């Protein structure tokens, strides 16, 4: 007959083997929260539920939570190693994966513009950039300055040395018509068109990324929404027409206000 083991010893071993790791639970919770907050910020801004900068802030917060989740998961994996007497290793791995996914998304966005200048105003004529007119009156963007920033010209020339005005072998009226047609084909909304002065101003609103309408994108992080305004000006010579352009982006509102709707309709 096998002698019975002491009840207290059996209960003690059972208690130790079933002890749950709080670190593992925290890691899984942080990882899940990172994904929900980060993805929710982007989705909310895309659907217009959140203001653009609120969406961007949520995305950045999700990335920060991802970093914390990865760190806590590392400690949780150590705490739940074999022979530790603690359960929850699966939760620790879950936290590491979720946090890692959010962190990788943040780093991927941050590396998109690696080596490119962090500028949001690009022109084909840095010496005499076209000026914005309608954008300065637009209730959604008039609060920002549309002066061409000092120092941008040097950064632009270093990054895009081949960027220059387009010269068309056509008279001003034909060049103006071609520019308007190009804007329409690109899906821009023309907000100002003055053929007598050879000026066209247009805008485009993109979701989840800052956009540039005249050159390669130099976005550093995914943003919730951006309104890109473009100004083009034509100058004629005896044989051709030169058309310098300028593009500047700015955060746009998540919803249209009555004031903006009235302005866009010209009322």
Q: What would your notes on this structure say?
A:
- By secondary structure, the chain is an alpha+beta fold.
- Helices cover 45% and strands 17% of the residues.
- The relative contact order is 0.15.
- Residues 7-16, 208-227 and 252-267 have low confidence and may be disordered.
- The strands form 3 sheets. A 5-stranded antiparallel beta sheet has the order 3-10-7-6-5. A 3-stranded antiparallel beta sheet has the order 4-9-8, with no helix packed on it. The protein has a two-stranded parallel ribbon with strand order 1-2.
N→C terminal distance? 99 Å
Radius of gyration: 28 Å
Helix/strand-derived category reads alpha+beta
Shape: elongated
CATH architecture of the largest domain: 2-Layer Sandwich
- Give average pLDDT, whole number: 76
Q: How big a fraction of the residues is strand?
A: 15-25%
Look at the structure and give the CATH class of the largest domain: Alpha Beta
> How many distinct folded domains?
2
SS summary, helix count: 8
Strand order in space, largest sheet: 3-10-7-6-5
Largest sheet: 5 strands, antiparallel
């Amino acid at each position: 007959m096998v002698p019975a083991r002491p009840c207290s010893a059996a209960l003690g071993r059972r208690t130790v083997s079933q002890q749950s790791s709080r670190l593992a639970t925290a890691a899984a919770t942080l990882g899940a929260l990172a994904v929900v907050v980060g993805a929710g910020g982007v989705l909310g801004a895309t659907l217009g539920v959140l203001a653009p900068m609120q969406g961007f802030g949520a995305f950045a917060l999700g990335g920060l939570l991802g970093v914390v989740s990865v760190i806590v998961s590392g400690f949780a994996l150590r705490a739940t190693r074999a022979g530790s007497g603690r359960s929850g290793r699966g939760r620790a791995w879950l936290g590491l994966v979720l946090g890692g996914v959010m962190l990788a998304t943040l780093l991927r966005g941050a590396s998109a513009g690696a080596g490119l200048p962090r500028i949001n105003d690009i022109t084909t004529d840095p010496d005499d950039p076209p000026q914005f007119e309608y954008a300065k009156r637009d209730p959604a963007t008039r609060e920002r300055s549309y002066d061409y920033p000092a120092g941008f010209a040097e950064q632009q020339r270093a990054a895009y040395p081949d960027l220059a005005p387009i010269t068309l072998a056509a008279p001003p009226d034909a060049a103006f018509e071609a520019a308007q047609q190009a804007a329409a084909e690109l899906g821009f909304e023309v907000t100002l068109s003055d053929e007598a002065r050879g000026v066209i101003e247009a805008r485009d609103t993109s979701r989840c990324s800052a956009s540039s309408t005249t050159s390669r994108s130099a976005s550093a992080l995914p943003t919730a929404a951006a309104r890109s305004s473009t100004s083009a000006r034509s100058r004629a010579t005896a044989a051709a027409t030169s058309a310098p352009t300028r593009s500047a982006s700015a955060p746009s509102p998540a919803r249209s206000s009555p004031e903006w709707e009235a302005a866009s309709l010209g009322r």
